[in-house]
Amino acid sequence: MHSQLTASKANSSGLRWLWLSVLVFALDQLTKLAIAKTFDLYESVAITPFFNLVSVRNYGAAFSFLSDAGGWQRWFFTAIAVVVSALLLWWMKKTPAEQKLPAIAYALVLGGAIGNVFDRIVFGYVIDFLDFYVGSYHWPSFNIADSAICIGAVLLVLDSFLSPKAKDAK
């Protein structure tokens, strides 16, 4: 009976999108594993005139922020990701099932956060491998987890403009 109530609560909230978090995590880890097994560190393979696959390690946060800070940043960013993940789960639980866009956004960010925190805990760094560039300018390398976090953030901003509360405020 208790598990039926718990399942019912999950289906009536944003938690019904947790499968998306699991999918993001799995895709992220599978792609990172493929790169780690196939590429030497710093190896790069041109795919298109503006995109390479590359094997790099990010010891910092987004855009390698604090990557050369001496090691403490590993646990600092891990702690932040754990707190944010707990908040995302709570927000997903509080989000009514009808509000799909924010729940999907939370699920994407959660899956990405867990993917990167897994790397930090297991390896001490995050594996990045997507390298986009124009001419000689390269954006910082990133991974599937980073992509999911960015897409989730964009969806949350979009939802803030599309939600009934935002329309009422206008």
- Whole-Å distance between the termini? 45 Å
Q: Give the proportion of residues in helices.
A: 55-70%
Largest sheet: 4 strands, antiparallel
Radius of gyration: 18 Å
- Shape estimate: globular
Produce a short descriptive summary.
The protein is an alpha+beta fold and 170 residues long.
Description:
- It is a single chain.
- It is globular and about 45 Å long.
- The model has no long low-confidence stretch (mean pLDDT 87).
- The longest helix has 24 residues, at 100-123.
- With 170 residues, the protein is α+β, with helices and mostly antiparallel strands.
- The chain contains 6 helices and 4 strands.
- Helix 2 packs parallel to helix 4 (100-123) and helix 3 packs antiparallel against helix 4 (100-123).
- It has helices at residues 2-11, 18-38, 72-94, 100-123, 144-162, 164-169, and strands at residues 44-48, 51-58, 126-134, 137-138.
- A hairpin with a 2-residue loop joins strand 3 (126-134) and strand 4 (137-138).
- The N and C termini lie far apart (45 Å).
- The chain has a 4-stranded antiparallel beta sheet.
- The chain has one domain.
- It is an enzyme of class 3 (hydrolase).
- It is a multi-pass membrane protein.
